[in-house]
Design brief:
5 helices, two-stranded antiparallel sheet, 192 residues
């Protein structure tokens, strides 16, 4: 008996659910790290599981394969883990967005607010060209500050930020709301 489109879609959804479940269960939560009250989402345990790590990369690649992404911008530091394999699979370049004084050569900077103070994100001048279609990737969105800074940095040079993508969203912190009209794709949603 031939499978219908409905059957095929249900099968695809089931496969994705299995992959999402595997990814979620491979992420270790460490209470009170780095300070009391924080439930740290530790992706290093996922990286020790080659199947869960591959599932993570595959799900992102499947989502962006047909979106004409020319740049994958990885936010320091864990965006550097996920960004390069996604960029390679998409045939896009990888651009690191870093904390201050980490990139040699001329940089463009964007200051952003933290809970107590400010920080800066930088990228190389000329790394991204006007009109390029960019995917911004990080491991986690909490309050959204670093993603907002990355978006502003990229838009200042005329890039088109297509979407932001994170493995984990700490939904209670409402970082998604700070992104304005920029879409956010996450694999795992968690509470703080």
């Amino acid at each position: 008996m031939a499978a219908t489109n409905s059957d095929h879609n249900q099968t695809d959804a089931a496969i994705k659910d299995v992959r999402i479940s595997r990814i979620s269960s491979s992420i270790r939560v460490i209470p009170d790290f780095p300070k009391p009250g924080i439930m740290f989402q530790d992706i290093t345990t996922m990286l020790l599981d080659p199947v869960a790590f591959k599932d993570t990369i595959d799900l992102f690649v499947e989502r962006y394969r047909e979106k004409n992404i020319s740049v994958v911008a990885g936010v320091e530091a864990r965006g550097f883990i996920f960004g390069p394999p996604i960029a390679l699979a998409l045939g896009a370049k990888f651009v690191p967005i870093r904390k201050p004084n980490k990139l040699p050569g001329e940089v463009i900077s964007e200051e952003y607010s933290l809970e107590y103070g400010t920080d800066i994100m930088e990228m190389h001048v000329g790394a991204v060209q006007k009109g390029e279609r960019v995917l911004v990737i990080d491991d986690l969105i909490a309050t959204g500050g670093t993603l907002v800074a990355a978006i502003k940095l990229l838009e200042r040079v005329g890039a088109n930020v297509v979407e932001c993508a994170c493995v984990i969203e700490l939904a209670d912190l409402k970082g998604r709301d700070r992104l304005g009209d920029k879409p956010l794709f996450v694999l795992v949603s968690s509470t703080c």
